[in-house]
Design a protein that fits this description.
Helix content of chain B: over 70%
Number of helices of chain A: 11
Number of strands of chain B: 8
Shape of chain B: globular
Order of helices and strands of chain A: HHEHHHHHHHHH
Strand content of chain A: under 5%
Number of helices of chain B: 25
Shape of chain A: globular
Structural class of chain B: mainly alpha
Largest sheet of chain B: 3 strands, antiparallel
Distance between the termini of chain A: 43 Å
Structural class of chain A: mainly alpha
Strand content of chain B: 5-15%
Largest sheet of chain A: none
Number of strands of chain A: 1
Strand order of the largest sheet of chain B: 3-4-5
Radius of gyration of chain B: 27 Å
Oligomer: heterodimer
Largest interface: A-B, 80 and 84 residues
Number of domains of chain A: 1
Chain lengths: ~325, ~675
């Protein structure tokens, strides 16, 4: 009973930390980009201010739409589920519900589908366009993600995330192995594509014809848009945090004790902050690639992931 | 007398009564009576199958006047599983058919053929000897051909589809006949057990054994719709009445998979490695090609037909991997892969039936199969939309459906399978995983397209504006299918354990919360807890959302955004064709689209365009490359053969004389 309660408490702490931190990750990425570009920037807290503004506004809805209320809620719920299952603060998972990587990917995909359906529901050319592009990218990212998951799961002999993390903590040499590095790089590219960052999608674009993510949410406003934005930010933060933890697993809480959790929170925040700064600064030097060049990028990342799997079998 | 004994007899009696009623009843009562009897017979078959699955023995022996061993129907546990699948699908399809069948598809012939079609699909897995197997198999082919022909007077493409179907299915039958004939000649008996024993003792003899294996595989692959023998699927499924397509796809394609599993576990245990590799290769080709064609299809039933090829491909991959792994001594992952194959068959039956019935309901309401002309059906047909969307979730292998669970089991088998020493396995596993992953990704896009374009946004043609929800029997059948799909996804553990029992797979356990524990590879899945977690989190989000909605109920509805508020016409919406356009570009080399763009300019100035016409056609590449040349050769040979018989009596007398001389020469030697 005590173990059960403490596990639930640990997961709750992780959820709260992630919800608090996800907008800040985005804010920090934008701010660091502004610094590199020599602008003053809106401040790290701007995403939180945006959320507050959106929650207080009156939603405006396009004629003939049906799912503008439900789809954002589904997206946010799946993002929260991903945050609950991925080891971020610590490797303590919900009792009886180990964070299996394949399950995490499926839950993410439910969110992806919710967004795509939201875009189609608006019944405009832009919504359908964004939805179509979004699903095309998602379909092409899928092989990279699963093969990278395969490669990462080989040393641990399991696709359960907590086991993978514990294996990495116990045997740090596996992290620096070529197979593991290639897999994590491939996963990183897949995460960029999946969360709509440069060079696949430009989150700051204002031109409808180049939009992917933004085109789908054009018709959302007010609190509907707030749920979509928070959900997307949570996905970004959780996936960036996961890649960070795969590369630098130290600091994660392996037990649910308050001290370990505190260390876990602090190291997670440090990793997220560093990732956000790197992401924001790197995006200054990247341009969005043409949509029909994206498959080439993804094919490259797939090749990396595939090499990772074969090297870990054939070179041992 | 056991439950299976009784069930088999009851099943046949009810079906026979159904055929008689279909032929004799008055037209206005025909659908209700024949449909109810068909549904009852299917239910009897379902129960019989479940009993046989649980291990109950039972047989029905029919003596014939022919000098053969008596025909025997005696389902073993594996046969029981496929009997239960066919029974469940048949039950829903018959129920749906009561409300759906109209016009030519509700004629006495059609109903009689339908009532006879269901038991033939169900009894294929029950057959215990070769003769009855082939008889029932052929009955299945003939009745489905009759059903396919229902609407041939109004639509010329029905005839072409039927021709393809009849030729492919009978070529497959010939392959089976030849394959079984070789085995029967080797063993001297006709029951499946005798064949299995003979295979056991003749294993070393090589040639004939491998030949029979190849022939049987071709026959079963044609029925399952594996590439390159799939060409009948995308033609036959759209033209058949929807409740018939549901059975053809959900259950009849499953008999092909049953045949392949039968080879691997009962008829020829430990098949050679080339067979497993061929199966994996066929499976990968089918899965990728099927889903790629499905993702660009705009006819919703053609889309579902290609998706059947895709799913059969996934099952073939799982079965091939199971055989490969067992040969490598990896019995744990091999059992998991075999269970994955059977679970895929169960979940495919559930979601494909739901989807075909949903598509039938849309056709019933609008008369349209073309996604480009549908749209906005959600408010008009909420139940159909719900069932179709759940079916789509299953086909896209998303939680919490049986489709997700079975694909998860397959993925676990793959990632745990490659731990052995075998180099072949180490290369095949990542390839299989990549193929499964790309298939899953494209399936996601395909299903979002099918559900989103058909049911969301605004209607794209007049037909949609008057659509009404289907009558009660149809809605019940669709929702029941969707319910089973979700239920099997939630109760993953019991499903896996029941399926594992039919092939003696070890290390498949159910947890106390109906979760699934694969002890053999140490992996677990807890759909109930996963659903619980998601529900708690959804409540956390939905709570404030609903609260806000109460507190500030005002929502303004206005024009959608199109670089300014625009009164969008449905013509501005994305269609199914435009939705798949990026994919057509990315996979242009594999799909080979033919495009035709005609720009008409005004007379006044060349740069003012009056009209742009765009036409895109996607043919089946395999059909073009493989079957067209074959047809051309056949036609040319037939032309040549025609020269031999020119109608002249003199020439025929010369032939007779030549033949007589040849015979005499042969005899006298």
């Amino acid at each position: 009973m005590i173990a059960w309660l403490s596990a639930v408490a640990a997961v709750t702490v992780q959820l709260v930390v992630m919800v608090a931190a996800a907008p800040l990750v985005v804010g920090l990425a934008r701010q660091s980009r502004a610094w590199v570009e020599g602008r003053a920037g809106a401040g790290v807290l701007q995403p939180w201010r945006d959320l507050r503004k959106l929650l207080l506004k009156e939603p405006v809805q396009a004629e003939g739409t049906r799912l503008q209320v439900a789809a954002p809620v589904v997206l946010l719920a799946t993002s929260l589920m991903v945050c609950a299952q991925v080891p971020l603060v610590g490797t303590v998972s919900l009792p009886g519900l180990p964070g299996d990587l394949f399950v995490v990917v499926s839950v993410l995909l439910v969110g992806t589908v919710a967004l795509a359906v939201l875009g189609l529901d608006s019944g405009t050319a832009f919504g359908g366009m964004g939805s179509s592009r979004h699903m095309t990218i998602a379909a092409l990212v899928e092989p990279t993600v699963l093969v990278a998951v395969f490669a990462v799961s080989i040393p641990a002999g399991s696709s359960a995330l907590s086991q993978i993390m514990n294996e990495r903590l116990a045997a740090p040499s596996t992290i620096a192995s070529p197979a593991s590095l290639m897999a994590v790089v491939a996963l990183g590219i897949a995460v960029l594509a999946e969360t709509g960052r440069l060079p696949v999608d430009n989150p700051a674009t204002h031109l409808e014809l180049t939009m992917v993510h933004e085109a789908m949410v054009l018709e959302s406003s007010g609190r509907d848009l707030a749920w979509v934005e928070l959900g997307s930010w949570l996905r970004l933060a959780a996936l960036v945090g996961l890649v960070g933890n795969l590369l630098v697993p130290w600091g994660q809480a392996t037990t649910a004790s308050p001290g370990a959790l505190l260390v876990g929170i602090l190291t997670l925040l440090a990793k997220l902050a560093l990732s956000a700064v790197v992401l924001g600064a790197a995006e200054v030097f990247l341009a969005k690639v043409r949509l029909f060049r994206v498959p080439e990028l993804l094919a490259g990342s797939f090749a990396l992931a595939f090499l990772a799997v074969t090297t870990s079998y054939l070179v041992t | 007398m056991t439950a299976v004994d009784l069930g088999l007899r009851l099943h046949l009696a009810l079906a026979a009564a159904g055929v008689l009623v279909a032929l004799a009843a008055a037209p206005e009562r025909r659908a209700r009576w024949a449909g109810s009897l068909a549904a009852t017979a299917a239910a009897a078959g379902l129960v019989t199958g479940l009993a046989a699955m649980a291990g109950t023995e039972g047989r029905l022996t029919l003596s014939t006047a022919l000098p053969l061993a008596p025909l025997t129907l005696a389902p073993d546990r594996l046969g029981g599983l496929f009997m239960a699948i066919a029974g469940g699908v048949g039950l829903l399809a018959a129920l749906f058919g009561i409300g759906y069948a109209h016009g030519p598809s509700s004629s006495a012939t059609s109903w009689a053929a339908f009532v006879a079609f269901l038991p033939s699909v169900q009894l294929v897995p029950a057959a215990a000897d070769v003769v009855s197997f082939l008889l029932v198999w052929e009955a299945m082919a003939i009745t489905s051909t009759v059903l396919l022909l229902a609407d041939h007077e109004h639509r010329p493409q029905v005839l072409s589809a039927t021709r393809w179907y009849a030729v492919m299915t009978h070529l497959g039958f010939l392959a089976l006949l030849a394959g079984f004939a070789v085995l029967v000649a080797e063993s001297g008996g006709t029951t499946l057990d005798e064949l299995a024993r003979a295979v056991e003792s003749h294993r070393q003899q090589g040639g004939r054994y491998h030949g029979a294996l190849a022939l049987l595989t071709i026959g079963f692959a044609a029925k399952a719709g594996l590439v390159p023998l799939h060409v009948w699927l995308p033609r036959a499924h759209p033209e058949a009445p929807s409740h018939v397509s549901a059975v053809m796809s959900g259950a009849m394609a499953g008999t092909g998979i049953y045949g392949l599993v039968l080879i691997a576990v009962r008829l020829m245990p430990e098949p050679p490695q080339w067979w497993a590799l061929a199966l994996v290769a066929l499976g990968i080709a089918s899965a990728l090609y099927g889903i790629l064609q499905a993702s660009v299809a705009t006819d919703v039933k053609r889309l579902l037909g290609y998706s059947t090829t895709e799913n059969s491909g996934l099952m073939a991959i799982a079965l091939g991997l199971a055989v490969l792994l067992r040969a490598d001594g990896e019995t744990g992952p091999a059992d998991v892969a075999l269970v994955a194959c059977l679970m895929l068959a169960v979940s495919h039956a559930a979601f494909k039936t739901t989807l075909f019935l949903g598509a039938g309901s849309v056709v019933h309401a609008t008369g349209e199969r073309d996604l480009d002309r549908l749209g906005g059906l959600l408010p008009r047909m909420p139940w159909t939309a719900t069932a179709f969307a759940l079916g789509g979730l299953g086909a896209a292998a998303l939680p919490v459906t049986a489709g997700f669970v079975s694909e998860w089991v397959l993925l676990q088998a793959i990632i745990h399978g490659a731990r052995g020493e075998g180099r072949v396995v180490a290369v095949v596993m990542p390839l299989a995983l990549a193929a499964v992953a790309l298939t899953a990704g494209l399936a996601l896009l395909t299903m979002v397209k099918a559900v989103g374009v058909a049911f969301l946004a605004r209607g794209r043609s007049e037909a949609v504006a008057t659509a009404r929800e289907a009558p009660a029997p149809m809605v019940t059948a669709m929702l029941a299918g969707a319910g089973v799909l979700v239920l099997l996804g939630v109760a993953a553990g019991p499903l896996a354990v029941a399926v594992a029992g039919t092939v003696d797979a070890r290390g498949i356990l159910a947890t106390s919360t109906a979760g699934l524990h694969l002890a053999a590879v140490d992996a677990g899945l807890e759909p109930v807890r996963l659903t619980g977690g998601v529900l708690v989190l959804t409540a956390l989000v939905a709570g404030p959302a609903i609260l806000l909605e109460r507190r500030r109920p005002r929502r303004r509805t206005t024009l959608p955004w199109g670089c300014g508020g625009v009164r969008t016409s449905p013509r501005m919406e994305y269609t199914a064709t435009s939705y798949a356009e990026p994919l057509v570009r990315v996979f242009g080399d594999a799909l080979r689209p033919t495009r035709d763009v005609a720009v008409t300019r005004t007379d006044r100035a060349w740069f003012v365009v009056r009209e742009v016409r765009f036409h895109q056609q996607l043919e089946d590449v395999v059909e073009q490359a493989l079957y067209r040349p074959l047809q051309a050769v056949l036609n040319r040979t037939a032309e040549l053969a025609r020269g031999v018989q020119n109608g002249s009596i003199h020439r025929y007398l010369t032939y007779s004389l030549a033949a007589l001389i040849a015979v005499l020469a042969a005899v006298s030697r």
